Each structure stands twice: as C-alpha cells, then as structure tokens.
Amino acid sequence: MLLHRSSWPEIEAFLTRSTSVVVPIGSNEQHGPTGLLGTDWMCPEIIATEAQKDADILIAPTFNIGMAQHHLAFPGTISLRPSTFIAAIGDWVRSLAGHGFTRIYFLNGHGGNVASIEAAFSEIYAEYSYTGRRAPFACKLKNWWDLPEVLGLANRQFPVGHGSHATPSEIAVTQWAYPDAIKTANYAPQIAPTGPIREALDFRARYADGRMGSDPALATPEKGGELVATAARGLIKDLAAFGAEIAP
Amino acid sequence: MLLHRSSWPEIEAFLTRSTSVVVPIGSNEQHGPTGLLGTDWMCPEIIATEAQKDADILIAPTFNIGMAQHHLAFPGTISLRPSTFIAAIGDWVRSLAGHGFTRIYFLNGHGGNVASIEAAFSEIYAEYSYTGRRAPFACKLKNWWDLPEVLGLANRQFPVGHGSHATPSEIAVTQWAYPDAIKTANYAPQIAPTGPIREALDFRARYADGRMGSDPALATPEKGGELVATAARGLIKDLAAFGAEIAP
Amino acid sequence: MLLHRSSWPEIEAFLTRSTSVVVPIGSNEQHGPTGLLGTDWMCPEIIATEAQKDADILIAPTFNIGMAQHHLAFPGTISLRPSTFIAAIGDWVRSLAGHGFTRIYFLNGHGGNVASIEAAFSEIYAEYSYTGRRAPFACKLKNWWDLPEVLGLANRQFPVGHGSHATPSEIAVTQWAYPDAIKTANYAPQIAPTGPIREALDFRARYADGRMGSDPALATPEKGGELVATAARGLIKDLAAFGAEIAP
Amino acid sequence: MLLHRSSWPEIEAFLTRSTSVVVPIGSNEQHGPTGLLGTDWMCPEIIATEAQKDADILIAPTFNIGMAQHHLAFPGTISLRPSTFIAAIGDWVRSLAGHGFTRIYFLNGHGGNVASIEAAFSEIYAEYSYTGRRAPFACKLKNWWDLPEVLGLANRQFPVGHGSHATPSEIAVTQWAYPDAIKTANYAPQIAPTGPIREALDFRARYADGRMGSDPALATPEKGGELVATAARGLIKDLAAFGAEIAP
Amino acid sequence: MLLHRSSWPEIEAFLTRSTSVVVPIGSNEQHGPTGLLGTDWMCPEIIATEAQKDADILIAPTFNIGMAQHHLAFPGTISLRPSTFIAAIGDWVRSLAGHGFTRIYFLNGHGGNVASIEAAFSEIYAEYSYTGRRAPFACKLKNWWDLPEVLGLANRQFPVGHGSHATPSEIAVTQWAYPDAIKTANYAPQIAPTGPIREALDFRARYADGRMGSDPALATPEKGGELVATAARGLIKDLAAFGAEIAP
Amino acid sequence: MLLHRSSWPEIEAFLTRSTSVVVPIGSNEQHGPTGLLGTDWMCPEIIATEAQKDADILIAPTFNIGMAQHHLAFPGTISLRPSTFIAAIGDWVRSLAGHGFTRIYFLNGHGGNVASIEAAFSEIYAEYSYTGRRAPFACKLKNWWDLPEVLGLANRQFPVGHGSHATPSEIAVTQWAYPDAIKTANYAPQIAPTGPIREALDFRARYADGRMGSDPALATPEKGGELVATAARGLIKDLAAFGAEIAP
C-alpha cells in the first residue's frame, strides 16, 4: 500500500491493522558515467514498491534528497547538509508518530546518509530523554543491501568489481526498473579506485568519473530483478520482526 | 529530460544547452475523503514529466514534502515546519546553482507552500544582499494552476464547487495519471465549507472531512488530461520566458 | 490604548475586557528619493495609534524591522533575514499568548513581509499541530491597504501612478503624520518601472532610484489624512470581527 | 538626524560626513505598578532623539524588544529569547555595516540586555575571526546610565531608593517625555526588595509588584529632564570619541 | 567528589545528600608568551578539585572550550561561537537538571565567557517563562576571582601589573598545579597595554604578545597555592549558601 | 606535547614541524555499576597523553561531552544533542584549521559519538562543497579500539564478556590510569544483555544496571596498561600515516 496513492481514511483504517510504516530514503547524486543520478533513492523505492505488492505494508513517499556533499562537484547532485537533513527527518518522524505510527522504518539507499540518519534519530529521541518521557515510537534504519540474503546474492553476482559507489548491484536494480534509461560507457580503469571521502573537489580529484571501486559494466537488468525480489522478501520479513518487537 | 534518470555527463552536456531547471514541489497531505495524499506533489510532477516529452527541458526530482502543518490532524499527512522547509530549499538551490544553473524554477502544487518558498528565496538572496554580491542565479515560484490558460480551463470545467483544497481540478489530474487509484465517497455536504486556516486541530474542527470549498465528485480523468496538456504547454512557455530574461 | 505607555496592572485590567492585541509591523527600507526610510513601519503605527483614540483597543509597540533584503543596496535599509524574522515573531506571539491574548493581529505595512509573517504563523502553529494540542490563540495578518474601503479610496486618489513601492498612498500617510519631513525631488521617469524582485544589487540595477511603478509626487498630506481616517475605522471594524470569531 | 525620517539619498550624503550610527535598544517589560511597559526602550530613544537636535549624529529606529524572559509573568512584557535577540542584532549590524557604517553604537536601556548584546557582538565578530579577516566595523554597547555624568546626577537625585528595576531615574525620564502617561500608586513596601533574577514565575514570587530595590515615587518630570539633558550631552561626547578611534 | 571518577550509583547516592553540582568552565586560549593555553579552564578545575577534598561537594567534568573568538589570531586558541556555547550549556543543564540537580553552579575562569553563560541561563529559563512553568533548578555563575576573599588576596599579591588577561594570578594558579610547565620570557613592555576587545585580528594588532594590562613575571607557584586555597574555601562557602537558598 | 600546557609561541613553533593535531573525544555517561562516568573521554585522553610522551605529536584538550542521550536515565550522564555536538565540533575544527592545522584527528572513545562526528565532518566540508572551494584541511575519526592491534589484543584478553558498553577493555584502561577509583559490584547477570539502543527510558528498561553485553569483572589494571601501550603505539603510527597523506 502506497501512502501517497491512498486517502486519509484509508490510512486511518490501516492504522487499525498495523502501526508500522516504511520510508524509502536515499540521495540524488552522481553515480559514475552511466549510473542514474536518482539511483540511491530509486533503489529503496523500487524495492519497497515491490514488497507492498505481496504484503499489507505501508510505504511512505520517498525521501529523495540526502547527504551527498562529497558528490557536489559532479553536475546533477543535490545535497542537504547534515543539519538540514536531521531537521527534515525529525519533521517526518514527528508527523508520522503524531498519527500513531509506532514503528518508523527507513529503508536506505545511500551509505553517506547513515551518519546523519542515526544522528537524526538521536536528536528526536533526545526530546524524550531530556524530559524523562518514553517515546511512543521507535525508528529503525536499514540499508537495502543489508536486508536478509541480499549481500550474499550480490557477492555471488559480483565477486569482483562491486566497490562502494556506483556499484553494479545498485545499477542493476535501476536497470531492471528503468530499462529505457540504461546507459553505457567505456570505463577506464575498468575497476575504479578506492580511498577516503572528504569534500567535493577532493572527491572529484580522487575519483575522476565518480565511481569508487566499482565496475558498473557487470550490471544487468536480470541481476537487478533478482536483487529486487530478494530484497523485497527481506524487507517484508525484517519489517515484520520490527513490528513484532515488544517494548521493554 | 528527467535529471534523476540521467547520468552526470548528460547533465554536464545539458548545461551547455540551457541553465534552467524545473523543480516540481508540493506536499503530502490529506485531500479529503477521496483525494490522494500525494496529490499536491504528484500534480506538478505529472505536468513537468509531460512537458519534458515535448521540449528539451530538465526536470529535477520532486520535492514531495512541504508545509502542511494545518493538515496534521488527518492521518498520512507529512509536514516540514517552515524553518526546515526553508533550510532544505536553500540546500537544493545551493546545490543546483553550484552546478551552473542560473534559472531555478519551482513548479508548485500546494498553496500552503507559497509563503515558505518565497521566504526561502529571500533567505538565499540575503546571503548575497548582506555582502554586496550579485547572485549568479534567479529563483522563480509558479503554482501549476497559475500557468498560462490553466485557470481559465479550470473555471470552464468547474464553474461551481472548485474550492481551494481537494479541488476537482487537482484530483482530476491525479485521476488521469493514476486511474487505478480513483476513489469515491458520498460527500456531505456536496460542497465543503470555507474559512480560515490555523493549526491542525482547529482545521479538523472546521473541515470535518478535510475539503475546503470543493466538490471532488466533479473530477474526471478526461478533465485531468486536458488540464495536464494545457499546463504542460504553459510550463514550456513560461520556462522559456524565464530563461530568456536578461539580467539587468 | 498603547501597551507601551501602560503599566502592567493596566494591561491586566484590559485583559478582563478584551483578549485582542494589534501589533503594527513593517520594515525600515528605502522608499525612493523622497519617501522616508521608516515609511513601512510608520504607516501601520500611525493608523493603529489613530484607531485607539476612538476605540478600546490595545496597540503593542511597533515591530519596525522586517524582511527587506532586496532593498539593502540602498543606504539606510535594515533587514532581518526570514529565519530571524520568523524566530522573532514567534517570540512576540509566545510572549503575548502567555499573558492570555487569544487574538494577535498584525497590521502590516510592507508587502515583502507577507511571506515571512505567514511562515512565522505556521511555525508557531506547528508546535501545536505536531503534538495534537489546540493553540489557545489565533494570529491574523492584515496589510493596512487591505483594510475595508482603503483600496477603493487609494484607487480614487491615485488612478494612475500608484505602483507597488514608494507608493503615493504610503508616502501621503507619512506626510500627514510628519509634515516636517516632507521631501521633494524630480522623478525621472515620472512613473517608475516595474519588474521582478530578487536580491539587492539586482534590485538596484532594475530600479535606479528605488521606486517600483509609482509616482510619489501625487502624495499630499490631505490624501494621507483621508487614508489614515479610513484605515483606522477599518481596523476597528476588522479587529472587532476577529475578536468576535468563535473557535470551532 | 533620524534615520527613519530620512530618505536614502540623505543617508548616502550623511555617510560622506560620518560613518557612525546610534541604535537605541531596550526592552518592553513591566516596570512596577506605575512604570510604563516601554520604559526601557523609550529612555534611550528619548535621549538619542534629544541629542540629535544638537549634533550632526544619526539615530536609527529603536530596537524595542529585548531580553526580558524574567518579566514574562507580568502582562504586557514581550521578550525575545537570547538566541533570537543575537540573530536579530546580527542582521541589524550586517545591514548597517553593508552601507559603510564603521561605528555601530548601541545605546541600551535595559540591564537584562547586556549579556545578549555582548554575545551578539562576539557572534558577529566570530565570522571574521574564524576566517582571518578584519571586520570593517566596530560595535559598542553603552547603557544610558553609564554615559558621562549621568550616574553622578542620578546618585544626587536619588541617594536612596534608586534600586535596579523600575528605578526613579528611568521613570523620571519617561515622565518628562510623556507627562500625560504619569501614573501613581501606593507602594508597599516603599522600597522594593532585592535578590537574584531567574525565570519568570520565580521573579514574580520574589518581587510582587515587579520592582527591584526601587522607590518610583521619587521620580519627577523635572528630574527626568535633567537626566535627559545630561545623557544627551554625554552621548554626543561618547559617540565622538568612538568615531575618533583609530583602528590599530 | 569528582563526578567523572564516580559510577552512576554513587551519583544516585549523592543526590540523596545534596542536589548541588559544580561545573568548572573556562576557555582554551592564548595567555601571552608564557601562560598556558589551558589557563582559563585549568584554574576553576584546580580550585574545584581542591575544594572537593575538604567537603562533600560534587564536581562535574570541566567545560574546557568557551567563547574566545577574540584570541583566534593566536595559535592554539579554540573557541565556540556564542550561539554554540549557549546551546551546549543548555544541554549540560538539561542533562543535570534531569537527574534532579536543583543548584547548578558554574565556576568560571574566563571573563569573555560571562555574557554567553548568562545568555545561556536566560535561554534555558525562557523555556519555562514562555510556558508559565516554574524551573525546578537554578543556575549560578561565579568567576573564581570573585569568590570570597580572592580578589583581596590578588590585590595584595599584585598591587600593580595584574591586568585583565594573562594575569599573574591565573598564571600563578597554573604554576602551582603544573610546576613542570612553567615558562619564562622577556616581556616588552613589562606591563602590557589595555584597550577594547573586538575581533581577532584587531586584538592581535592591539596586543602584540596577547597580554592585556598584565605582568605575568609577578606570578609564582607559592602565590598560586595561596590563591587556590583561598578560592577553594570560598567555593565551599559560596556553594553552601547557594544550596541553602529557599525558593520563593 | 599537550596543547593546553603549551603557550601560543610553542604552538606556533610546532606548526613549523607538523600541522597535525589529535583531539581526544568521548562522552560522560554511565558505565554500569562500576565503570567511571568519565570512561569514554578518559580512555582517549589517557592513550593520547601516553603517546605524546614518545613522539612529537600534539594533543588538544579533551572534548569530554558527547552524544549520550540514551544514557540520560542514569544519574551523572551529560549529553549534547547531535545538533549541538555537530555545531561544537565545527567550531573546534574551524578554530584549529584557522591556525593552519591541516590534519585534524579525532581519537574517539564512544561508539554513540560516531554518527554525530561523521555528520559534523560533512557539515564542515559542505561549506566548501557548496561553494566549489577546496578545504585546506582533512578530518579523521578513529575509535581507540580500532587503532592497529588493539582489537586483537582485546579479543585475546576478553574472549567472552566483552560486550559493547561498559566493556572490560575500557574499564581496564581507566583502572590502569586511576587505580584509586576502581570499584566493584556483584554483576547480575554476569554478562549483561544486548539489544537495540533508543531513548533513555527504553534503554534503562532494557539494561537495568547500564551494561550492554559486558562483564566488567574481567577488567584489571594490568590489562588496561597493555591496552594503553598498544593503543598509544597505534595512534603514533596511524597519525603519521594521516599526516603523510598527499592531497590529490
């Protein structure tokens, strides 16, 4: 069930069946010469949309701009600074918690978001912790590649050349969902270099075409389809476990 | 051209042809008993996506959560507070301006966003105004219903019962785009009341089912299609005029 | 009754008769070659001060610095950025609401303030909306030229050359109140150009002497006196209606 | 010369003669059973207005709301929180410095403002200090009672019962300026108690009628007139010294 | 008792005996050619640590970075801007008050901190004042040199050449505590100049070696020991008085 | 070399030899029934202090309060919220970078700090990334337990019962440094439970005595000494590698 294609009475009704909600969250940032700028928000959106076809779960609109300051030297990247990102996540959570959602599950598509999302959770929880109140909700962050069985599959699909940015797995997912938008290029080197992440010009100086450690040529729509199916099953399972947690 | 389905080299190439970009912006909020929660961000997204099929214009990802504090008493609404919204718009603009975009055009789908978006523009401009520098970019806000010829069409389509929230015109647009998500209800009264907008519980007390002044039963997918076609043409034209402006 | 020329026991007593308060709010910014820098905060102050002579209404001190970033390239302009303005309005409202005022009426003298003031109201209301509480007060924004019968009078007084900044109507109001400060100049062109508003240097490049669309030579103290009298009556009436509203 | 009753060309001309500006700054807060709520912003405004009659100095509009959180339990008090106050002072200073003012002199009327104003100066200076740039302006805070010869006069006028809040000296100043607004009461005790300042309810519990250590019955308009004349002379002198400072 | 060398059950037990806590607070900033960069946070830490040997009082960890923007042109200085400092003090106070501490005593070692610390107290109190609640705690700021009998001793020890920054008294305290870190230099002039404090480059231009009005050559470890002993006794006494206060 | 026991000329001299600086950073929070509240800031301070005895490296004062909102239900915990923490780290970095430090190395002692510290780095870098400038410095975060060879040693020392909070390794480090502050208790259960981390009351409900997965009884001062020696060597090595990095 997609929240944004529902009416409010439908959400009111859903809340009598479940108080869990999934927020796909990612980033809009360069993904090398062939990856889509939207890759990191599309992947969790694709997976969550697929999962809700098979289970009575609720998917919120996609939080599509994240923390990508290090990619800003490549055109098309849009980034929030961490402080803005934290404030925005807070307002999403306050909105959803206000409706009675008690399990707010962020399905993340961008490694660079992790620190800010976790900081955002602590920022929200702190409102309760400083004042000695119990929060009536819990937040959870899960990267889609950490869903059950996904990493194993990706390792089998891409034993070498997976890397950490503009990876063949994420590109495969978008190829499966948007076959009309598949792009090709000659990669030089075939497998991109690796190293630290700092500010944007430093990043572009280190990683000339934007990739980190990856060979996107390995991606295929078929592999993407397998990843989506596996991740969707994993999401349903992981969300069920989160929903079944008993508060201490 | 959709920015998020492009690669960064494609955006780099686009910037040699044009430095204008369209950001669909809206809100995720209750739209009465039958309107989709996503109506306000879907409408500009639908129109912009349609427009880029006919013209070489660039559409950014949709800014889908806006200022909807007054709708928070209805489940499914997600709102940023104005200060968060202003900060986030600022980061979007800084990101896009950093790539060389000089015309940043927000196609808006939610009246409640207008004040915060305009305040955001002033907040960004002020960075230049306090320091005596020229801003290398200009921002523009346009509500989709204010695009050329759209209001005239809507008035002809809905001479009575248009109202100001959960209007038949916006619902028609989403019906055209998402026919599988058309919902029905008995509206009582047929045309909703009107009045002031304050905080969320006040709003719900005044507007029992969430509508303001509207009769959504008047919406049809066909009328929506006409609105989309007209608005898409208007967007192309209005954006061209914005892009052709000569800075003084 | 002027709040600032009262003692706290007098305000305590007033609150037993009425819980409405008027805050004149404006801006200190260039108003062309002859308009006073204080025009936009003086106008609502003048009108409100006049109104309280004829009715038992309470006028707060004037909020004299607003959002005028686009005028900063002209000496004497003082501006808050929107985020600061929103925070300050919030603190004013919290202070007044804490004393038991339930109707907080901002009589505004600057079009450029509107977005930030409305955003400020939403920011304050959001504190209640996120937490499911009713706000014990309501805020209202009214531009003085939108008070009953004022626009009609101004249109009759200035059928051409009114414009939108450094208008003859606002200059007439200050001429009536401060006849010793009337200034003259040769205007070239007689009626100033119009166009968009962006940052300060862009503004000065477009509007060489600071006016927008206006011919201030049309102003006279007598016309100002008529405007003040009409506006003062309108304020008393509009405030009474606001105070008489029944919360839903 | 009053900035707000001047046009921008007049300010432009003034800047060729002097780059100093005086900002009267105070607070709107309870001043005991008889003191005006506006006392603390009226006093510096009165003194500065008087001073500019005798010298070619420039007086900005009055910053009339300050840091008065401890007075909020008395009706009519309006307070900014320190963070808001600091942000607003920053925007005032940035605006004025942008026009070329190099000496920004705050004539203060409220002891409770001192910490926030000084913190605001440091906040603004820090923008320069972190980046190794010289600030092209200097800020100065002066309480009107600390102007040359004022304290000596006040001590002679009120050898006992001066106190620290709702003092006879500040009340005398407003009596001289607004004789129609003189109020009387029986003070019990005649001289109010003293003690610490914390939050608002604590304050009201300690200081039942709002005074601290003072006997306002000692105030007369005549004494107020002497204070104003002395302070106005002191302001002219102190401002001249500030303007004559040579940056190291 | 040092909070940081205690376990939480020990603090829980302490709270049954006393609800007062001392926070040593200072700054890490240049202290002339021979003073330690840590002087301003070490002094209150040294004094508080000494005091808790003789009395059952609780000392929190040292807040070691304060407001030192004016010293940033000298290497080794670390400064918070006032807004950051205020936010951080707020979080410390909220944490401690949440545990049941009702008397939060800041023993300060840096004059430049005073404005920001007092502003921070008002910022925290305002949360209560705007909402009509009593704060369950009180904050107090005391400079160590203002503790009973300390100033008298310092005046006797250093009748000339004490000055206001890099003073012989504070340097003596650190010499007593860290005799291995005593440094020497030829001071030219022997007694440093005095003047105003603005931004960092202005400061360095005025005060070439960082001192203000002081002759650090007068410091000895013995004098430092006397100061520490006197201040420690004063702290115990002053804290006892604070703890014994009855809320009104 | 300890920055705070140095004078500014000594730091100026150090900067000619090296532009790296180590900031020990931790948290002041409950560490179970026997762990010191200061454990998480003492550990990196102890290790860094030890390391600078053997190498010409510079150690800044300890950043002793971090992000510990989840521990606030245990007395003695002091926490910054993430937004405050990020702002403060930013000011530290700006101060140090302003002096010419190009490698700012945070040696961290608290897992709960990681997200906020990394977010802080991105926040600072973003100032450069949005404006297309190279940052003249790089920040690095290293947990002391991730220094070379430390984890291996800890695994050998504590093959079972290490856990993740109030671990025997961190307690051993403080036992070595502060043998007078060693505390004992009967642990029930001997090895604490594990689970998720949310807000403070949830945390206390899950982890009754504050430990997570650990058996602190395994700690000894001797094991602590081994850990310190190993970590100090690792720090020298890791910092050297960081300092030797060539910017791309």
Automatic annotation (TrEMBL), chains A, B, C, D, E, F:
<keyword id="KW-0378">Hydrolase</keyword>
<keyword id="KW-0862">Zinc</keyword>
<comment type="similarity">
    <text>Belongs to the creatininase superfamily.</text>
</comment>
<keyword id="KW-0479">Metal-binding</keyword>
<dbReference type="InterPro" id="IPR003785">
    <property type="entry name" value="Creatininase/forma_Hydrolase"/>
</dbReference>
<dbReference type="Pfam" id="PF02633">
    <property type="entry name" value="Creatininase"/>
</dbReference>
<dbReference type="InterPro" id="IPR024087">
    <property type="entry name" value="Creatininase-like_sf"/>
</dbReference>
<protein>
    <submittedName>
        <fullName>Creatinine amidohydrolase/Fe(II)-dependent formamide hydrolase-like protein</fullName>
    </submittedName>
</protein>
